[in-house]
Amino acid sequence: MVFYRSVSLLSKLRNRAVQQPSLSNSVRWLQIQTSSNLDLRAQLKELIPEQQERLKKIKSEYGKVQLGNITVDMVLGGMRGMTGLLWETSLLDPDEGIRFRGLSIPECQKVLPAAKPGGEPLPEGLLWLLLTGKVPTTEQVNALSKELCTRAIILDHVYKTINALPITAHPMTQFTTGVMALQVQSEFAKAYENGIHKSKYWEPTFEDSLSLIAQLPAVAAYIYRRIYKNGEVVSTDDSLDYGANFAHMLGFDSPAMQELMRLYVTIHTDHEGGNVSAHTGHLVASALSDPYLSFAAALNGLAGPLHGLANQEVLLWIKSVVDECAENITNDQLKDYVWKTLNSGKVSKLYEVVPPILTELGKLIWDRALGLPLERPKSVTMEWLEKHCNKSKSA
C-alpha cells in the first residue's frame, strides 16, 4: 500500500512538473555541475573547506539575527514551529513538497542518472546529490554503486545476533539489533579512541556511513525473509544497483519492482531534520556517537506509533476494512467505516502518513565536517513558565 501511495504521489508530481518552467531556466540548474572525479570522498574533501568557511561567515555576520519568537505554546507543543536545526540536505516546500538540495522530486527525476533511459532515478545518485549538492554523472553514480557493493559485507555475528531474537520480535526490533551488531566495526569509534583530531572527524564518519548504507538492505532483507519467508535468504547480486538489489534480496525480480524500489528508496532518503527519527539521529550524533549508534537510535524513534509505526497501523486499519466490508467496498461503506473509526476514539492517519526515511547518514558526515556542537536544548519547568509569563505581563 505504501509503495502504491508513493507511485500515486509521483504521478501527481509529474503532472505538476509539466506545468513548471523548464529546469534549464531555473536557478537550481546551477547545482548541476560536472566533475570527472569518480570518488565521492575526494569530492567531499574539496567541498568541506569552503562550506566550513561559509558557516564561519554566517556565524560572524549573522550570529545575532533573530529567527523568530518562542512562545509558550511552542514549548508545551514539543517545539513545533521552532527554527532550531541546521539541515542542509533537504527542505520541505509548502507548495511542492520535499526538495533535495533545492531540487524537487520531478526535477530529480529529470536530472539524476537512471538505470535505463527515462527510468526512475538511482538512489546512489540522490546520495551523491545530498552529500555534495551536485548532480552526479552516470559514471560517478556507477562508481559509487560499485563501492557500495564492496562495502556490503555482513559478518556472521550480525545474523547470529538477530537469530537470537524470537522470530515474533517486531521487525524494527530485529533491525535495530542488527545495526547495533554492525557497530563493532565502527571506524569512527576506533579513530576517536586513538585520538583523532576533530578536524578529521568527518573522515571515519564518512567510512561508517557509507558502509552502513551499503549493509542496510542485506540486513533488512534478511529480517523480512526470516519472518515472512521461512528464513529462505536470497543472496545479493553485485551486478545490480542499490535499489534493484534490495528488491532482489526481498525476493522480487521483475523490472517493474526494481524500478519501484529505486523510486521508493530515492524519494524517502531524506525528509528535513525535525521529524522524530532524523532529529534523534542528529541529536545522538551531536554527542559524537558513531553513525551506527546514531542510526540505531533513529530507528527506535522511527518505531514509535506516531512516526514510522503509523504506517503499520494504516495497513492494519485497511486490513480491518477489507475484513469487515470485503474488497469491493462502496464509497458509502468506506465513509461509514471511517466515521466508525473516528467515533471510536481512534485517529485514522490514512491520508497523513508519509513513509519514513531509510537513511539520513550523509548528514552526519557534514555535522562532523562543520564541527556542529552537542545538541542540548534548554528545558524549563511549569513554575518557570508561570513566573516568566507573569513577569512579562507586569513589565
TrEMBL record:
Keywords: Transferase
GO biological process, one term: tricarboxylic acid cycle
Gene3D superfamilies referenced in this protein's UniProt entry, alphabetically: Citrate Synthase, domain 1
GO cellular component term of the entry, any: mitochondrial matrix
Xref: Pfam families: Citrate_synt
Keyword set includes Transferase: yes
GO MF annotation terms: acyltransferase activity, acyl groups converted into alkyl on transfer
Family, per entry: Belongs to the citrate synthase family.
NCBIfam families in the cross-refs: PRK09569.1
Protein name as annotated: Citrate synthase
Source organism phylogeny: Eukaryota, Viridiplantae, Streptophyta, Embryophyta, Tracheophyta
